[in-house]
Amino acid sequence: MARSSRLSLAASALLAVTAWPASAQISDDVVRIGVLADMSGIYADLSGKGAVEAVRMAVEDFGGTVLGKKIDVVFADHLNKPDIGAAKAREWFDTGGVDMINDLANSGVARAVATVAKEKKRHIIVNGASNMGITNELCSPYAIHYAYDAYSLAHGTGKAVVEQGGKTWFFLTVDFAFGIGLEQQVSNVVRANKGRVVGAARHPLATTDFSSYILQAQASKAEIIGIASTGADAVNAIKAAAEFGATKNQKLAALLLWIEDVHSLGLQTAQGLLLTNAWYWDANDESRAFGQRFMKRVGKMPNMAQAADYSSTMHYLNAVKAAGTDDPDKVSAKMRELPINDFFTRNGTVRVDGRMVHDMYLWQVKTPAESKGAWDYLKPVATIPAAQAFQPLSESTCYLVKK
Questions:
Q1: Distance between CA atoms of residues 274 and 110, nearest Å
Q2: 27-148+283-354: which CATH topology?
Q3: Of 122, 66, 115, whose CA–CA distance to 97 is shortest?
Q4: Can you give the pTM of this predicted structure?
């Protein structure tokens, strides 16, 4: 190749990397992303430092700038309190120059922040909460529910268990928006498949003594004890069920189990449990590569919400770049226009109601003999296609959906 041709190609490549629209506009010359997470409480291992690092990794991989302007990452602890989460979001949007808030573990916090986002016309992306209000009564052009929700969990684990013969259910439910919403969704699935819900016991967040709740579940004689909680609550409930002998005559259905929960329980206790997840670090070469990078920074493998924190941050930044601005309305339109193809999902799309639709997966916890080493915990059971995994738009109550 002639020297002039090589120089021309090099110049073109440099232009493609560095050029941005002449009309590009970035508010206060910084694109600022806030990670509002549980940094110190019951969900800190599921959210926390891992969520912050996942967002930072995305920003680094994007190049650290967009449209020639710096990308900044800030974070805060919402303490699992909706009022604190809402106050921090309002502060960030009003005076902190934050353009988008990510993670939002805890459904009560996510709901409260969604209300602020709608009022302030600023973006949030929910990856750590399941409550379906984000894409229904609390929907707005500025809220995206990305990783999973109660519908996808119920139509994964709940449906699979019922189809395997688990027709009578008793729920151990954490008593706030997440648990109540999950119990309702799974109950709908159970009844739709000619099963019965015979009772429920609701416990406070961060419960350590599950003895009275397990005794109620045993007394119900239900075939299935549905664990409508997550994190340390789910781990403690599962351990208590084993200790009280509930698992001798009844089966457990963990409705939101994370890889960290399996790690904490150990395969001897968790083996055989079915769970629905959007993503698993050992699913393919791309997910393994991300998992190994994350492990070096955080000291554990990432879960589906942390992988989604990375993926959704990339999607937001790509939308800003495509829009030529961080104007919320223009970015919102691009986020719904651009497809998502990365290690988290293939052919993902954001619907008008803010739901990012993608395939979900049913997994089973391996036996100790099946595991080849640390964090090798899950084996695939079934793929739940995107069209079946999430609530259809025809059932949505979002005001943006035209019916």
A1: 26
A2: Rossmann fold (3.40.50)
A3: 122
A4: 0.90
